[in-house]
Amino acid sequence: MSDVKPIYTADNIRIAYQLNYSLTLFSLSRLPEPSQWLEALRLATEADKVRILEYRTLDETTHQFLLSTQPDVTPAKVMWSVKGRWQYLVRASIPKAFRRNYRLESVGEANNATLQQYVAKQAERHRLIDPRIQARLESAQFLDRDVELSKIRTSSHGQYLFNLHLVMENREHLCDVRESSLLTTREMILRAMRKRNCQVARIGLVANHFHVLAGCCLEASPLETALSLMNNLAFAHAMTPILDDSFYVRTFGNFDRDAIRRCL
Question: Per CATH, is 21-107 categorized as 2.60.40.60?
Answer without folding.
Answer: no
